[in-house]
Design brief:
This protein is about 35% helix and about 20% strand. It is of the alpha+beta class and about 180 residues long.
Length: about 180
């Protein structure tokens, strides 16, 4: 699989998980968009809306594209009570050389490593280990500012969607089994 083939997949992943940004530059504890908007959009629709809103400084086009190409967008749209740790397009650009060498199965594993099969708002997070949709564990640390998951900073939290919540992260989370 080439980077050209993976780019749309990563774009989808970025958008799906990116339904989280904020109007004041993405600081921890803030949420994007006009939060007076009713929670009628699912996680994918929320990520798409955040990407379309150029005033929030966030883009999840790569995440959305990758998730769509991997067949995960439908799951993220319909699965209830999930948390998505959404990397931005910039996060995907930082690892484009790594992604280029991934198989479709590995891309799927990376995407599922961004999804927690339960709702975890910022207030629910603690120094703990979470088991992600991929079946692999991710370590959360709240002793840092901002808090981290699997080493990635969580910069925007608690972006509500009809089927869960999104948190924006600064890096693409790589499952332990795919790390060098």
């Amino acid at each position: 699989m080439t980077l050209r083939t993976l780019s749309p997949l990563l774009l989808a992943l970025g958008l799906i998980f990116a339904g989280c940004g904020d109007d004041d530059g993405g600081t921890t504890g803030t949420t994007p968009m006009d939060m007076d908007t009713p929670m009628e959009m699912n996680i994918v629709e929320t990520a798409q809306a955040l990407t379309a809103d150029t005033t929030n400084g966030l883009s999840f086009a790569t995440l959305l594209s990758v998730a769509t190409d991997a067949g995960l967008a439908a799951t993220l749209s319909t699965t209830e009570n999930i948390t998505v740790f959404a990397p931005t397009d910039e996060a995907f650009a930082d690892i484009s050389d790594i992604v280029a060498g991934l198989t479709p199965e590995q891309v799927d594993s990376v995407l599922r490593y961004h999804v927690l099969p339960s709702v975890a708002r910022a207030a629910d997070l603690s120094n703990t280990t979470l088991t992600m949709f991929s079946g692999e564990d991710a370590v959360v640390s709240i002793d840092t500012t901002p808090p981290t998951i699997a080493g990635a900073e969580i910069t925007v939290t608690d972006v509500e969607a009809s089927n869960g919540v999104i948190h924006v992260v600064t890096s693409v989370l790589i499952p332990p089994t795919l790390r060098p």
